[in-house]
Design brief:
By secondary structure, the chain is of the alpha+beta class. 35% of the residues lie in helices and 30% in strands. It has one domain. It contains six helices and ten strands; from the N terminus they run αβαββαββββααβββα. It is globular, with a radius of gyration of 27 Å.
Length: 261
């Protein structure tokens, strides 16, 4: 009889444990994602990091209607909910790095093929060193682990030359004037003709498995990103509502795709 009672108690304990674990696991399918983007002020413009397809930058620029585009179903984190404020402030105090963007959002964890990209664009002040304009996209998904994918194009326009038709017509002036201005013009031309080592389009592209509650660092000679992913302790009701909304969005996307076919 004691054995039967012990066995029943053990089974009940296992059932309670499994129920609690399943509910806990269910609540962990919502995550807070924080993203800090910075550029390097000491960038030297290594050519092997140039983007292979410069048109990609412009295509992405034309499809981006606002500086930050959060996918539907994502919730922007309040400043009080962010965990990388201190990191952002330390980067601002750095002599070699300049943070340009700090984003935080809450999202359900979905398989890679069901996750939309978060798009953004940001520009720095023209007088600053390093690259000036950045267009990127990033997403967090499940793909045999927790996956972060990022693609950021940074570029700096080439300075236009100052040559005009009037410059060619001045060749008929007196030899004395040309001699007086020869040294000065050579200095000016030498400055104009020196190529900007950062003129062009640089690409940071990474697909990496990450760890939760850890600061993940993606490095590049001209820029970098810091990402932290933490589980959001949602209630079962909140999680059910999020999953229902996500399922509805997926159904609408599939319906639209079928109609377009």
């Amino acid at each position: 009889m004691k054995r039967i009672i012990t066995l029943i108690a053990l089974v009940c304990g296992l059932l309670i444990t499994n129920f609690t674990f399943s509910n806990s696991a269910k609540a962990q399918t919502v995550f807070d994602v924080e993203f800090v983007f910075f550029k390097r002020l000491d960038a030297d413009g290594q050519l092997n990091y140039l983007a292979k397809d410069e048109n990609l930058v412009f295509r992405q620029n034309y499809t981006l209607n606002q500086p930050i585009s959060l996918p539907e179903g994502y919730q922007s984190l309040k400043r009080s909910e962010r965990r990388l404020e201190g990191v952002f402030k330390r980067l601002r105090a750095s002599a070699n790095m300049r943070p340009l963007l700090h984003l935080g959002w809450r999202q359900p964890l979905e398989n890679k093929e069901n996750v939309a990209w978060l798009s953004f664009s940001v520009s720095d002040e023209p007088e600053q060193k390093g690259l000036l304009d950045f267009i990127g996209k990033i997403r967090f998904s499940r793909n045999k682990g927790l996956l972060i994918e990022s693609q950021i194009n940074g570029f700096r326009a080439t300075l236009p030359t100052n040559f005009t038709e009037d410059d060619d017509n001045t060749s008929g002036t007196s030899g004395l004037d040309s001699e007086n201005t020869n040294e000065e013009s050579e200095e000016d031309l030498s400055e104009v003709q020196i190529p900007d080592p950062l003129a062009g389009h640089f690409l940071l592209e990474e697909n990496r498995k990450i760890k939760i509650n850890a600061l993940n660092y993606f490095d590049h000679p001209t820029m970098g990103i810091l990402i932290k992913v933490t589980p959001y302790q949602a209630t079962i009701e909140q999680q059910d509502a999020l999953e229902a909304e996500q399922a509805l969005q997926t159904s609408e996307i599939n319906k639209t795709n079928k109609e377009s076919e």
